[in-house]
Amino acid sequence: MVSRSLPHEYFVLTPAQKTGPVIGHLDRRPIAAAVIDRDGGRYRFVGIAARDRRGRLDVTALKPGEWIVAPDLVYAEAA
């Protein structure tokens, strides 16, 4: 279920610089194996963000350390 009290903007990693190989495509856009945030933090691709029936992002489905990177990609902090 999507939480109305948790705006999805709080869970979006921006800006994120793509790095590493392209490991797939979503809507004809490349999916990078990893991204780096503005502070140099590295994140690895772990999946596609869940949405509810109305098309809203389900941020409650994210695990600790996971972030959304447009368009609807989920990246987790790299160890």
Report on this structure.
By secondary structure, the chain is mostly beta strands. Helix content is 0%, strand content 46%. It has no helices and 5 strands. A 5-stranded antiparallel sheet has the order 1-2-3-5-4, with no helix packed on it. Strand 1 and strand 2 form a beta hairpin. It is globular. The model has no long low-confidence stretch (mean pLDDT 88).
- Strand content is over 45%
Broad structural category: mainly beta
What number is the mean pLDDT?
A: 88
Largest sheet: 5 strands, antiparallel
Number of helical runs? 0
- End-to-end C-alpha gap: 29 Å
Order of helices and strands: EEEEE
The shape is globular
Binned, the helix content reads: under 10%
- Rg estimate, integer Å: 12 Å
Task: Label this structure with key terms.
79 residues, mainly beta
Sum this structure up briefly.
Helices cover 0% and strands 46% of the residues. It has 79 residues and is an all-beta fold.
Question: How would the blueprint of this fold be written?
Answer:
Elements: E1 16-26, E2 29-37, E3 42-48, E4 66-69, E5 73-77
Antiparallel strand pairs: 1-2, 2-3, 3-5, 4-5
